[in-house]
Specification:
Elements (H helix, E strand, L loop, with lengths): L29 E4 L11 H8 L17 H13 L4 H6 L9 E3 L2 E3 L4 H20 L6 E6 L3 E5 L8 E4 L3 E7 L2 E10 L10 H13 L1 E2 L12 E8 L4 E8 L1 H19 L24 E2 L14 E3 L1 H9 L1 H8 L12 H17 L18 E4 L2 E4 H14 L14 E11 L4 E13 L2 E9 L11 H4 L1 H12 L9 E8 L2 E7 L4 H20 L9 H6 L16
Parallel strand pairs: 1-6, 8-10, 12-16, 13-17, 18-19
Antiparallel strand pairs: 2-3, 4-7, 5-6, 5-9, 7-8, 10-11, 14-15, 16-17, 17-18, 19-20
Helix pairs in contact: 2-4, 5-6, 7-8, 7-13, 9-10, 12-13
């Protein structure tokens, strides 16, 4: 099996808790949430399956001083609102640094960053507005929140039982003469823009239709005549109906789509290194994750485990609060227009990725270029006018330096894959999302693609400083995360309107490695020692920041 295929069917009995037919653990239900139905090729099924097994315990870990799970605090606010509190009063109960954490409804809420509190206040107001303004709810009565629903079953007498759970806000009410169970899913963007696969919908609807209350003392276990799933947009107060079904329709949806998928997903799963490694309970048993203590030359004793990337370091250098909001996955300002140069670069990346992933492999050719150079799109990034023509010209220049030129069709090529290294000394997972890795004459080559409108080339001695991704790539080869061969190289492909430029870096050079360590340490040290993420307001930084509309410290921003 190729080293970078990132998949294996090995799922050790140790990872599964050593279960045998007579083991008591085999009778403990697997706790499965609906998110399992949306696993992509970049997710690790072994990590997700271990997460469902409550008999596998997580090792001791340090926790951050600031809350790093936004929806825990947000859920507490919504519960307070459902019990009659106003948005202002509910948010006022949340702890904000430097106040200590508190327990709300039995759950510990760590102190929040002021920016996170601002976002939660906005999101809660939008959530309430979305439900208040929807005419459907004008015909409902006897509504109340519930503890949620669960469905326990065993596929067969020899299979481990399963407990299906759904995440969101559970409600029950009468609509005209029908008893309705409804799941409201808060979403931090605009409702209706996310794709909900049929398998997920079948999961949600079936648990709503047939499940029992999570809390044993919940008094409403009556079977509904109707089940609904709605998505509530917390960015702008929008609402989208994901499904509205009878229990019979929910049964059909689950049987036809969801149940077969669960059987496949819960079979001995593949492993895949990436962001899932951070919270993985069986990480110590994984043979794919590369370990390199001291990679970042930082001491992480007592710090919580985190993911570092070159991008995370760059965000922190701009503004620590901005880096924190990004790590929390808070939404961008919906009114912020993506700069043309960013859209252009992303469209070029997406266009070439699709070409390079074709099988059998073949180099890019003139017939692969956009047929309408003045208007085209790739990866959801639409270009038109001069920006589109310029980007199409960049694609034309790429034909001369395409990495697939001269490669046999059976060559190993990986596009936009994650490479992860665990640095236990720093308590960090260092991650790179690589544009392309490919084998040439048996050695792996790392290629980074950049688009630029500049006619002035970056001098060679400054290359690693200007593009720190290249410096980190050197460390990935040095650590063995990418095997270093006699012909291995790091390539920077610069595409500009006037022509292409490919720079080569030797990852085996001692001088290059020394410089790479300096660059990476400079880009990670300040981020690594910071756990409070103070804002650094500046007119230029705030003006371009996509989080400025809810950041209390932003300069020149109208508050949400």
């Amino acid at each position: 099996m190729n080293w970078y295929h990132c998949r294996t069917s090995v799922y050790s009995y140790r990872a599964r808790g050593g279960m045998g037919a007579g083991d008591e653990r085999s009778r403990v239900p697997l706790l499965i949430f609906s998110g399992i139905t949306k696993l992509s090729d970049k997710d690790c099924r072994a990590q997700r399956n271990a997460k469902t097994d409550t008999t596998i315990k997580r090792g001791r870990r340090s926790y951050p001083r600031l809350a790093d799970k936004p929806f825990s605090a947000f859920s507490a606010v919504l519960t307070m609102i459902e019990k009659g509190a106003s948005v202002d009063a509910a948010c006022a109960r949340l702890p904000v640094w430097p106040d200590p954490g508190v327990r709300i409804f039995g759950e510990y809420i760590a102190p929040l960053h002021k920016g996170l509190l601002s976002w939660i206040h906005h999101a809660a107001g939008s959530y309430v507005t979305a439900l208040r303004n929807d005419p459907f709810y004008q015909d409902t009565y006897h509504e109340r929140a519930t503890s949620g629903w669960r469905l326990r079953y065993a596929p067969s007498a020899t299979d481990r039982p399963r407990e299906l759970r759904i995440w969101g806000r559970s409600h029950i009410y009468m609509h005209h003469d029908q008893l309705v169970r409804e799941l409201r899913i808060p979403y931090n963007g605009t409702a209706g823009r996310r794709h909900h696969p049929a398998e997920e919908i079948g999961f949600l609807a079936y648990v709503l239709a047939t499940g029992e209350p999570v809390a044993d003392d919940d008094r409403d276990a009556a079977s509904p005549q109707r089940v609904r799933v709605v998505e509530v947009g917390c960015a702008d107060g929008t609402l989208s109906v994901i499904c509205d079904m009878t229990p019979e329709e929910a049964d059909d949806a689950f049987s036809s789509t969801t149940a077969p998928l669960l059987d496949r997903l819960l079979s001995p799963p593949a492993r895949n290194v990436g962001r899932d490694c951070l919270d993985c309970k069986i990480r110590d048993d994984c043979g794919l994750l590369r370990r390199a203590p001291g990679l970042l030359d930082l001491d992480g004793h007592g710090l919580p485990p985190r993911i570092w990337s070159v991008t995370a370091g760059r965000y922190h250098a701009d503004c620590p609060a901005k880096a924190h909001f990004r790590a929390l996955q808070l939404p961008d300002d919906p009114s912020t227009e993506e700069p043309a140069a960013i859209r252009q670069g992303r469209a070029v990346h997406a266009w070439l990725r699709d070409l390079h992933e074709r099988r059998p492999l073949r180099p890019c050719s003139p017939g692969d270029l956009p047929t309408e150079p003045s208007r085209w799109e790739a990866g959801g990034h639409a270009l038109d006018g001069a920006v589109a023509k310029q980007a199409a010209e960049m694609l034309r220049h790429h034909l001369r330096v395409c990495p697939l030129l001269g490669l046999p069709p059976e060559s190993q090529v990986r596009c936009e894959r994650s490479v992860v290294v665990e640095d236990r000394r720093a308590n960090i997972l260092a991650l790179a999302d690589v544009d392309m890795l490919y084998q040439r004459d048996g050695s792996w080559v790392y290629r980074e693609l950049k688009t630029t409108s500049s006619a002035h080339p970056v001098p060679g001695p400054l290359l690693l400083w200007r593009y720190p991704q290249l410096a980190f790539a050197v460390l990935l080869f040095e650590s063995g995360a990418i095997p270093l061969g006699s012909g291995s190289a790091i390539e920077l492909e610069l595409l500009a309107p006037h022509g292409p430029d490919v720079r080569l870096i030797d990852p085996s050079s001692a001088r290059i490695r020394e410089k790479a360590h300096s660059v990476v340490r400079k880009g990670s040290a300040a981020w690594h020692e910071d756990d409070l993420y103070p804002p650094a307001p500046d007119e230029r930084t705030c003006g371009a920041c996509s989080y400025r509309y809810f950041c209390p410290s932003a300069i020149g921003a109208s508050r949400a």
